[in-house]
Every structure is written in structure tokens, then in C-alpha cells.
Amino acid sequence: MVRVLSLRLKEIEIRGFRSFTSPKKIDLDYDVIVLTGGVGSGKSSLLSAIEYALFGTTFEVKERKSIRLDDLVNDFEKEINIKLKLVDDSGNVYEIVRSKLRNKRGRLKIITNGKEYYGKNCEELLLKILNGMTYEDFIRYVFVRQEILEALIYGPPMRRSEALDRLFGISTLEEAFRGIPIGDVEEKISELSLKKSTLENIIKQYGTPDEIEERIARRLEEIEKIKSRREEIEREVKKLEERYKQLREIEEKHKTLTIELAKIEAIVDNLRKEIDEMKTTIGEVTKEEILLTASELKERISDLLVEFLKGKEAEEMKKLEVKDEQMLGEFIRKIQKAIEILEDIRSEYEYELSALNERIISSREVVSRLKNKLNALLLEIDELKKKKEEYDELLLKYGTPKTVSKKLDRLKEELKKSETIGAEEKALLEVLKRTVKELTLKGEVECPICERKMRKEEYNVKLNAKIEKLSRKMIESDKRAPQLKSEIEKLSKALDKMHALEGDLVDYQFKQKELEILQEEVRKEEEKYYSLLETVEEAKERVERLTRALRTIRRKLELIKGYYELKKREEELRTYERRMKEIRKAFSKLDYSPEKLHNIVQRLGELKVALSQCEREITQLENSVNELKNVKSKVEEAYRELKEIDRKIKTLEKLRDRLITIKNLFRSIQRDVRKKILEKLVPIINDVFKKIYPYEDYEELDIKVETKRTSEGYERSVYTIYAKRSIDGEWVPVLNRMSDGQKVLVALALIIAFSNLRPRGISILIMDEPVPNIDANCRRAIVKTLSSAPGIKQLIIATQNPEYEDIVKVGVKKYGIRGRIYRLHYKGREGTVVEVAL
Q: Which residues pair with 106 in a beta bridge?
């Protein structure tokens, strides 16, 4: 394939990558492109998309390791799709297409002038297209991040030197230097020395293995003597334990009889007390009296069962016989069962009584409610009755509504005619008055009606007579009209009142019928209420009678039960008294002496203490023997380890000396590499600086390397950038003397110079959020000069500072730069939206 040079970006299509949800196609075929927008708008996502398309990873994934590749997939999409088009100076178009499903490996496709390439060789082909530019080259001198500029401009000497080493690609030497583990070796030597000292102390503490062996032999002899004494004690213990066992059996029998006797004596005392209390409770009562009471109780319960319709139970009760005391237990059980039946009957009656009381309350409430309703209805009827009387008076006075309506129509017609005639006569009267007035003044006038000549002498008297007649008629008409109006008003009110009262008359009739129905309902409910009252009284009387009977039955039953329990206790007392006599006879047959048992127990205790002492001494001696054996093994092991540690310490000391030599060699190599790079780089830096620096206060740059000692005592090279001041030719440190904007231009000159020093396959520079606190002149200089700097054919700036938009607009108009401004906004689920501002 032909070697590709001077690539620039032409176009990018993004979907599903970071903040880009829906597909976006962005034209990149411009000299200067500015991306503006707030935090989170998608500027960095767009730059990372270019980075991902070229290398299949991003700075956050590979360098910072703050996220995973799957985190690049948009939250609302399943797949990343990016197509990046590049073009070279000859017009050849290269399309790089990368895609990645979540939790899957990414895929790469390359299209060169319409020909597609897939598979494993695509990455090698892409590396050839980029003229061998690796990802590390890209992040050093193509994609300039804010932290690189800040390190070069604001960073302390060490941080600035580390940034330059990374830019020069020699940071691996420093990493290798730091990776040489001299500290680990020295730590291991110290650790082994400490262990050696510990082993020497062990040998000093315990002595030699032969000395330990002698101590073990002495302890074994002591163990044998103690074991012999233990056997003599065990034989004596065995004889005493046999005698003790015999005495213990006798003692157990004695103890068992003693306990049993004590229990029976306690029971007898309690029974005697209970019998006395029971005799006091029931009094002096004979067997015949109890049997008679039982017979009466049986008859009373039978009668109650018959009364409350329990015939079967009553028959069984009548069959029950009580002829002697032995039958009282069964009698009491059956009587209690019969009482339970009667209690159930009483509970049923009480439940029925409770239900009846609830019905009475409900019936009383119904009666009360109906009576309230009846009273309210009577009040309504009284009111309606007054309305009926009022209607009858109007009917008597004016007649029926129909008659009043006809009379009213006639009066209205008469009033209308009167008003019409009055108006005509009034108009005629006015004409006559005006004519008489003109005759009086002129003596002759034309008739206003027929236009005939009229003279004063002929018509004056006639006209005055006519005027007088009309005037009287008008007066009469004026008197009649108010009378008609008054009469019409009176009849209208009467008619309206009659119409209004007609509805009340209908209500009166309905209410009368409703009253009859309601009175009948009240009567029925009251009868029902009083009937319930009678039923309740009967139920109450039954419950009270049954309660009294049960009270009497229980009292008699308690007397019978008391007598029955008394007889049982007396029989039980006789049984326990017989057992007491038997136990006392058994005591006299036992040959038992507590003193003999006590002496044997005391001697056994002494012997067991002696045995325990023997066992303890044997155990202590055996433990001591085991410990000495362990110590012997430990000392022997210490001798062997001590020899091995001495060998290791000597080996590690030799290794430490060799590593120190190697580290010093790495420092020498670093100095030589920096010197060679700076010899080539400084002339290029000055050539670039003169082209892009817009001021005249400084004319030349230089980078010097100073050697400093680190905290570990090794040499460390520190870069210092100097600028030659035009006014006096003095070299001054850039960091201390130049403004932030000037330092940015110096840093960019260094980056551009280094990128021209190294072969590259892409002629663009990407700046993500350039240092913001620089003046407008410097920002204009950055855009203008970088767009035409050596080796830079395309500049992309991502920033939150909107002033860059104005700078690009000026550059387009004034310097003929091909520029484009994109404004980015983030709109939630829709993702990043890209608007063209220029």
C-alpha cells in the first residue's frame, strides 16, 4: 500500500457513544473548528469519539482507567457506531468504521477509496494509514489535554519535567529507574539480619541440643517415681470404694424411707386440717340428712327440666337413685350436668330477653320517629289550612279565577281605550288653543284641518266653547284612568294570589290523606310495642324464677359435695396412717451409721487429692519433656537457618551493589537522551516560536537541564525553559516572567516543534479546554497561528469560553481562515444536539 501522509479530518458520524444518542453527522473539513457548550454538553464526547475511532480506546479507559469500554455505550442505546473520514493531500479518502455492542468486543472496518477491509489485519492497515503513529504518539502531540498545558505552564519543576519526559517519550526510562527495587533488596537484607539476631537469641536462651537432652532424661526419671506412688494410692482407693458402695446402698434406703415418711406426715397433717375445716363448714350433718337432701334436689331438678321442656333429661333424672354414700359421686356428677343444662336454658332465655329488649328499643324508636313525623305533618296541615281559608275568602270576594281573569281583561281594555281617546283629545285641544291664540293675535287664520279661512268674529266663540268642553272631558278622563289602574292592580294581585294558593290546596288534600295513613301506622306500631313489653315481662319472670331455683340447687349441691369430699378425705387419712406404721417398722430393721460413711468419704477425698496431685505432676513433667523436645528441634532448626541466612545476606549485598550501578547507568542514559533530543528540538522550537508568537518582547527560547538530588539520594534532571528578552538580550525563566497567555504560546510552540521532530501521519491538533485565563490577543494568536503553524493543517478547540467564537469569526473574515463553529447542547434522552453557529 502507498504510504499516507498529511491526513486531516473530513467528517464524523456518531451514534450511541457517550452523550450521543441519536445519529449525528458533523462536517470537520475546516482549518479551524471550535466546539462550544456548557459542562456535560458533549464536547469531550465528540473529541473522544475521534480518539475511539482511530485507536479503539480513550484516555479515560486506557490511561486514567476511571471507566470501562462498556461505559462508553450510551445509556439509551445498545451499540456504538462511529464512522470517521480522513483525507490526504492527494484527495484519497479513508473511512474508519468502529462499532461495539454492550458486553461484546469492538469491530473495525476500513474503506479506502471505496474498497472495504475487515478482520484481524485492519489494525495493522490503520497503523500504516497513520504512518506508524501509535496511541501514545496521539496523546502526546495531537490531542493536547488541559492537564498537559497546565503542567507545562503552572506546574512545579518536578511535575513540568515529568510532563516533558512524557512528551519526549522518555518517561519509560524514569519508570524503569524507579522500578529497580534497591529499596526492596535493602529491606530484605534488614529483614534477614533481624531474623538472624532472633535465631542467635534463641540459641543463647535454650543452650545446646546436648544440654537439652540431659534435662529431658532427668524429667523422665521423675515421671516413673510418681507413677509408682500413684499405683499404691489407686489400690487403697479401690478397697474403700467397695465399702463405700455398700454403705451408700443402705443410706439410700434409709434416705428414701425418711423422705417418704416426711411426705406422708405432711400429707396426714394437711388432711387432718382439711377435715376439721370441712366439718366446720358443713356443720353437724348426718348421712340420712344428706340422702334426703339429695332426693329433694333430684325432684326439684326433674320438675324444672319438665317445666322447661327437657322431658328426656327429666326422665333420666327421675331414674337416678341415691341409697348410700358410695353413690354420691355419680349423683353429684349427674346433678352438675343437669345444672349445666338449666344454665344453658337460662342463657337462652337471657339471650332471648336481650333480643326482645333490642326489639323494644327499635320499636320505641320507630314509634317515636312516626310520632315526630305525625306532629310535623299536623303542623304542615295547619299551615295549609290557613292557606285554604285565605283562598276561600278571595273566592268569596272576587269569584273564581276565571271570573277575575275576564273582569281584568275588560278593565284593561277600558283603560287602553281611555288612554287612546285622551291622547287624541289632548292633541285636538292643543290645536284649538293654538288656533284661538293666532286668531286673537292676527284676526284671521287658515283652518289647520281643512285650510279654509277663519275670522275672529265668526269662530272665536265657537272655538272657545269647544275648548271648554274638551277640557272638562279631559279632566273626567284623567280622573277615571287612576281608578281603572288601581282596580286592575288589585284584581291582578288577587288573581296571582289565587294561582299561588291553588298548589297549596292540592298539597292540603294530599297531606290529609297522608295524615290518615300515618295515624294508622302509629296505632299499629304502638300495639306492637306494648305487646313486646308484655312478652319481655314474661321472659324476665321466667329467668328470675330459674335463677332463684339454680341458686337454691347449687347451695344444696355444695352441702352434698362438702359431705362427700369429707368422707373421701377421712378414708384417705386412714390409708396414709397405715403406711406411716409400715415405714417405722422398716427403720428398725436397717443397720445404718452416718459416722462410718463420713470417715470413708473423708479418706477417699484425701486419696483422690493425692491422685490428682500425682496426675498434675506427671502432666507437668510430660509437658516439660515435650517442650524440651520442641526446643531441641527449634534450636537445631535455628542452627540450620542461621547458616542459610548468612549465605542469603551475602548474596543480597552483592545484588544491591549491582543494582546501584545499574540505576546510575539509567541516569547517565537519561542525561544523554535528553541532551540529544534538546539539541535537535531547541532550533525547531525557536523556528516555530518566531512564526506563532505575535509579540516583540521575546525573540528566542532555550531549554536547560539542571541536576537535583531526590530524597533517596539519586540524581534527577529538571527542565527549565528560558526566553531571551529583546530589550537587553538577557535570558529569563519563562515560568516567572511571562504572562499566562505567553506561556500557553510557548507550550504550544514546544508541542508543535516536537510533533515536527517526530514523523506523523496526521496533521491536526486537538485542544480540549485550553487554559482559560489568557487575554483576547493571546486567544486570537492561538487560533491564527496554530491554523497556519508548521505541520498543523487543522485545529480543533473544545471550550466553554464563548469568546473563541468571536475570534474564529474575525479569523474567517480578516485572515481568510476556513473556520466552523459548533454549539453543543445536551437534551436528556435525545442526547447531544449540534448546532452550526458559523
A: 100
Reading the block at residue 41, the C-alpha cell is: 454538553
Instruction: For 333-359, write each residue's pLDDT tens digit.
Output: 888 888 888 888 888 888 888 888 888
Give the other-Cβ count within 10 Å of 220's Cβ: 11
The 764-768 sheet, strands edge to edge: 143-145, 764-768, 794-799, 32-36, 819-826, 832-836
3-state DSSP assignment of residue 774:
coil
593: its cell numbers: 451409721
Q: Are 713 and 663 in contact (CB under 8 A)?
A: no
Q: Model pTM?
A: 0.46
For residue 17, the 8-state DSSP code is B
> What is the C-alpha radius of gyration for the chain, rounded to an integer number of angstroms?
66
**Helix 328-398 to helix 311-319 angle, to the nearest 10 degrees?**
160
* Residue 169 binned pLDDT confidence (cut-offs 50, 70, 90): low
How high is the pLDDT of residue 49? Answer: 95
* Whole-number Å distance between alpha carbons of 18 and 832: 9
The neighbouring-strand residues paired with 107 are 99
Phi first, then psi, for residue 104 (nearest 5°) are -125, 165
Contact predicate 404/494, CB 8 Å: yes
Query: For 478-506, what is each residue's pLDDT tens digit?
Result: 666 777 778 888 888 888 888 888 788 88
C-alpha grid cell, residue 270:
394437711
The residue type found at 20 is F
**Percent of the residues in the chain that have a pLDDT greater than 90, as a whole number:** 9
| CB of 588 closer than 8 Å to CB of 254 | no
Give the torsion sign (CA, 25, 29, 30, 33).
positive
Cell of 236: 487403697
SS3 content of the chain, % helix, strand, coil (to 5): 70, 15, 15
Q: Is 284 left (phi over 0), alpha (psi -120 to 50) or beta?
A: beta
In the chain, the amino acid numbered 172 is: T
pLDDT score recorded for residue 4: 39
Spatial distance between the Cα atoms of 752 and 42, rounded to a whole number of angstroms? 27
SS3 letters for 245-308?
HHHHHHHHHHHHHHHHHHHHHHHHHHHHHHHHHHHHHHCCCCHHHHHHHHHHHHHHHHHHHHHC
DSSP string, 123-142: HHHHHHHTTT--HHHHHHHT
The DSSP secondary-structure symbol of 11 reads E
Tell me whether residue 353 is exposed, middle or buried, using C-beta atoms within 10 angstroms of its C-beta: 0 to 12, 13 to 18, 19 or more: middle
Residue 396, number of CB atoms within 10 A of its CB: 8
Alpha carbon 618 to its chain centroid, in Å, reads: 67
Query: In the sheet where 106-112 sits, what is the strand order?
Result: 24-27, 8-15, 79-87, 93-101, 106-112, 115-117
- Identify the H or E element spanning 36: strand 32-36
Read off the C-alpha cell for 392. Answer: 276561600
Bridge partners of 765, per DSSP, are 795
What 273-280 contacts at long range (C-beta under 8 Å, 24+ apart), as own/partner pairs, is 274/569, 275/566, 275/569, 275/570, 275/573, 278/562, 278/565, 278/566, 278/569, 279/566
Burial of 120 (0-12, 13-18, 19+ CB in 10 A): exposed
CB of 797 closer than 8 Å to CB of 808: no
Grid coordinates in use for 113?
477509496
Q: Are 185 and 656 in contact (CB under 8 A)?
A: yes
Q: Coil, strand, or helix at residue 123?
A: helix
Most confident by average pLDDT, 49-63, 621-635, 702-716: 49-63
Pairwise CA distance, residues 808 & 823, whole Å: 13
Report angle CA 141, 146, 150 to the nearest 5 degrees.
100
Query: 182 is written with which cell numbers?
Result: 534497591
